[in-house]
Amino acid sequence: MVRLYAHQETALALLRLNDGFALFMEQGTGKTFPVLFRLAELSASGRASSALVVAPKAVCASWEAKVGMLSEGQRDALSRLDMRIVSYDTMWRRKELYGGSWDVLVLDESHFVKSPSAKRTKACLRVAARARYRYILTGTPTSNGQLCNLWSQLAVVDPVVVECGNGQRNVYPACLGGDSYYKWLERAAYLNQWHKPYKYRNVSELQEVMGGLSYRITKEECLDLPEKLPDEVLHVGLPPDAGKLYREMARSSAIESLDTLAGNPLTRSLRLRQICSGFLETDSGERVELGCGKLAALGDLLSDFEGKVVVFCEFRRSIDAVARSLESQGRRTVVLDGRSRGDEWVAFQEDPSVGAIVCQYQSGSAGIDLYAADTCVFFEPTLRSDLNEQAKDRIHRAGQTRPCSYYYLLADGTVERAIYSALLNYQDFGEALFTKYMQEYTKGEAL
Q1: Domain at 232-446, CATH class
Q2: Is the predicted pLDDT of residue 427 greater than 90, yes or no?
Q3: Taking burial as the number of CB atoms within 10 A of a residue's CB, which of 43, 276, 316, 441 is the most buried?
Q4: Strand, coil or helix: 151
């Protein structure tokens, strides 16, 4: 039987007081259980007979597992509730889900609907407009201070249907004046020439709205968790074949011997990062295998390691290579990426014979528990600071009893160092930072 912490009791009380509400609680503070308690109450009292829970694919299994941890009375109440737990991609593709009427709508990791124009956002808003109870959960409602991400999330919490002519009906946030996204944006932000916000105004007004419709708490405020140890960076040299191709791509944006051209900075960045991880995809789609010192470094790091370990990778090729390497060392390994069922992490948590899990950032960085391990290895850095922080929090969350260690395998003298520096400053590594890196790299080559 689950007993709620004090901050979870506060969250549950606020859900009881508000038919539409947001739990903006930091990763690892336990957002799911207050919502499940509330769903059980609504079912037992007869106020709800159906509920649609929408979550990232990998997180759906977490909801199912947590239902099994409730009391017998709560499980019985939920069994009488027509409750569907589906992924965002499934939801917007199936009309019986987005076209139906649900008493309760729950969006887990609600930052997945931050884009008003996305199909999944429009499908969720359509359900929200008809649902009596609407709850959203995320530890990262905005990324890098982009307050515009809040518009569609608040439209789910507090929807109003607006007639837009020609029989068209749209769903807007009543708490933001019932304005369309672009009308609200003109009032709330300064826009650049591409109509994108670069600075926000009337922030206090938005904060007041958020204060009435959301609950925010951090792990430091509510949990007695062990510490996160400082990052440890392992510098890995590029093998001669990879180093030669790296320099050629960096100097000229092309590799003549492989008939491969990087026509823009994003492609050039991608090719350089691939080389750091021991492979290169050519313009024809062929994959060229290169030397990679990271696998040997990972093997050395874990050679005397007896506990469970989490490894995050950016590329599928890296995921497969790391999984094979770990298995060859006698470490039973499961993989969580876009090809997986989504519940592989449960075996990692519960099965003592499973010693490692290899995760793709997008699949394994949110909504799942990996605290069976206290060590996390980043085989290659991600470009997004929010994914990096969320990945770290998979092992540093309620249930963890040991200090958490983090290791980064970085190809020495490459773009990976610049990416990691950006992550340390909670910055995404975009085109501007890549251009700056290339300028410094070119200057260094000329000396």
Answers
A1: alpha beta
A2: yes
A3: 276
A4: helix
